[in-house]
Amino acid sequence: MNTTIGPSETQVERMREGIVDRIGESMPTLEHAAAPRQFLGTPAPEQLHTPRALPHNVRQLPKRSVRTRRVSALSLAAATLVAIAILGNSFGWGLNGGASAEASSLLEQTAVATIQTSDPVVAPGQFLQISTRAVFATYAVGPNDDPKNLASRSVFLSPSTSILYVPADRFGQWVWERTALKPDIFFSEKAREYALNSWAQLSPAERTEIARADGGNFDGSPWTPEDLAAMPSDPAALLSYFYATSAGGSNSPEEDALSRISDVLRSGLAPAELRATLYRAIAMIPDVTVVERSATLNGQVGVAIGRRDPTRDFRQDLIIDPTTGLLIGERQVQVTADANVPANTVIGWTSVTTTVVDSTP
Q1: 231 φ/ψ angles, rounded to the nearest 5 degrees
Q2: Lowest CB count within 10 Å: 17, 148, 215, 276, which one?
Q3: CB-CB contact of 319 with 270 (8 Å)
Q4: Which residues touch 115 (CB under 8 Å, ≥6 apart)?
Q5: For the whole model, what pTM was predicted?
Q6: DSSP state, 13?
Q7: How far apart are CA 152 and CA 150, in angstroms?
Q8: Where along the chain do its domains lie?
Q9: Cβ neighbours of residue 197 under 8 Å, at least 6 residues apart?
Q10: For residue range 79-120, what is the model confidence (pLDDT) as tens digits?
Q11: Which uninterrupted H or E stretch holds 356?
């Protein structure tokens, strides 16, 4: 069976890494950034380069790397937030005003279709193979560049693949193979030279990494069975869970919640019932709208539902198929031009497919 993961990760990656500020001085450099979010399929866009791979001041988009904390860790204040948010969602006031009517309708249609779509059956001894193709923006400052001059940066898109093997017994050993691919989209000739020179310096071991971990407990954190089981089955309670367990890193609770919900959907690990609840939770996030009725991502066409945080110059989109309940993928779009990237440019995307296999690398 081979199917695109549907609405229901996901960088885990952020796009758990929340969406980082590409131009703020507070954005961490590669040398000091937290361990990359393990998008079981990232983006998300996954940050696969090591400091040796990109030696200078490199900033990579798109997602967040902070793992969701357990519900049991909620403080009294967080629990109060949950109660307030649930009431607010029920009556249309409070923390969540909700998505547009058009987006809400499409998300509900997708949630219903998700329940009707069978999840892959993994027999004992087999593995669920979750394959992700991702592209993320890289903002690099060379040794002779002025870090305060945004126009001096080398900006290019870095492609990667991720293949996660999940055993039938999810507490068994998982295998995760990640490969950084040769960059092929550049926003200047200077960026092309920088990117290709950096790529040429990578050894085969730096381009492809294979990690193994019992129960999926990789350093950096994909969603484990315990994480998924801790998520409420009610949409309002689930959204409140994401608000209350935020570890920061985004410009608003809404941005953070949408990013982390996208991570779970993109991971390929959430069962159909949870995926449906996640879509209904998205419908409760303010400013989510339908941005494109016929959006193409990695050769597939779906409806783009997105949100632009008021503090951002880019928008985060989910590409879904409301008739099948399948999640085609995710993308980030530069809405307004910056010093390097033209307006309406896709600066990152991920697509995820799954199948069942009998062995791992």
Answers
A1: -85, 130
A2: 148
A3: no
A4: 272, 273, 276, 325
A5: 0.74
A6: -
A7: 5
A8: 2-348
A9: none
A10: 334 444 444 443 333 344 799 999 999 999 999 999 988 788
A11: strand 345-357
